Amino acid sequence: MARASKANTGGLLPLPFGLWPAETRLLLGLVLAWSAFGLLILASASWWVSEREMGDALYTIKRQLIWMVASWALFILVIRTPLRRWIQLAAPALIAGAVMIALTLVMGTTVNGASRWLVLGPIQLQPTELIKPFVVLQGASLFAHWRRLGAEQRILWLGIFAGLILLILKQPNLSTAALTGLLLWLMALASGLPLPWLVGSAGLGAAAGTLSILINEYQRLRVTSFLDPWKDPQGNGYQLVQSLLAIGSGGTTGSGYGLSTQKLMYLPIQTTDFIFAVYAEEFGYVGSVVLLLFLGIFALVGLQVALRARGNQLRLVAIGCTALLVGQSIMNIAVASGAMPTTGLPLPLISYGGNSLLASLFTAGLLIRCSLESADHSSLPVQPVRS
């Protein structure tokens, strides 16, 4: 007796790789290429500082490789686990993350004027990075079922999200707060929430950001230095000036891989926030355009997954994951090129940092899982089974 076997996209195992949709395979290839290319860029950006400060030119890249192995293990786990299970974990994970962010305000490690890290023995946790995928999951869960929820549940979760953003602003971390708010706003827009609510929430967000800048001198100086970095090139404008010099030095085709001069203790934070400047110096205008085209292709494939999604919740998760990875990348590039005030957002899958790497590959795994669960299984081959 023979019968058609059911595709197991809702179970522990996804479809066999040979049956993956073309867009899912393309996504996997893009994530693999992004990860490999990110390691190459980081190796170039980090070797000189690692040699000077740690006595080992490979110190940074070896630590990143350890985090890469752990992150890819998580990535595979996410692909093999039904999305509904991650959504079930989103609410408690989000609340736990908010508690950890609150703890950074009282016992966190302060770096560059902001308290964003919790040190647990040899491990440094940055809760604002780790919480991002769960913001997407819980946001999708909330807005997908918005019309069926009671007023109390709506107000409760909007209050939790608002509290989370305020905690992030308190660190202060304006860039991550803005990214979190923008992610939720885009998912609310995609779910069809009334326009007056969207306009009102955008206004509240802009007001909160403006107030944060006015209160925190640290942020205010970054904004003023962004407007005219050459006014104080050795002070508040130093980071951006050196970044612009690196990008400008790249010219059309760049100085060549590994040959950046700005990373030789001229450009600050060259392995995280300003790693794009090192890349642009070594690969030039052509390389920068190639990176932007790559992000554009990733965004288009992610949008295709969202359009083919089975159900509003899957669609919103796909939109949120795509917006998080591509949007954060664009914001990082905008900062390095002087189009935005200097912020503390890493370049996903490229900047040094285990927390960012874990969150980025978690997010990419969720997007691929969305694609698998949205696949059309009507054309799958009939497989004989023994009765």
Structure description:
With 387 residues, the chain is mainly alpha-helical. It has one domain (27-373). It is 66% helix and 3% strand. It is built from 13 helices and three strands; from the N terminus they run αααβββαααααααααα. A three-stranded antiparallel beta sheet has the order 1-2-3. Helix 3 packs across helix 6.
Secondary-structure element order, N to C: HHHEEEHHHHHHHHHH
The largest sheet, given as strand count, sense and whether it forms a barrel, is:
3 strands, antiparallel
Q: What is the end-to-end distance?
A: 6 Å
Walk across the major sheet and give the strand order: 1-2-3
Q: Please bin the fraction of helical residues.
A: 55-70%
Strand portion, in percent?
Answer: under 5%
Shape: globular
Rg (C-alpha, Å): 22 Å
Helix count equals 13
Number of strands: 3
Overall mean confidence score, pLDDT: 88
How many individual domains?
Answer: 1
Structural class: mainly alpha
Low-confidence stretches: 1-12, 377-387
Short description:
With 387 residues, the chain is mostly helical.
Features:
mainly alpha, three-stranded antiparallel β-sheet, 13 helices, disordered N terminus
Question: How is the topology of this model organized?
Answer:
Blueprint: H1 22-54, H2 59-80, H3 83-107, E1 109-111, E2 114-120, E3 123-125, H4 127-130, H5 132-144, H6 151-170, H7 174-191, H8 195-215, H9 217-227, H10 238-249, H11 275-307, H12 312-336, H13 354-373
Antiparallel strand pairs: 1-2, 2-3
Helix pairs in contact: 1-2, 1-11, 1-13, 2-13, 3-5, 3-6, 5-7, 5-12, 6-7, 7-8, 7-12, 8-9, 10-11, 11-12, 12-13
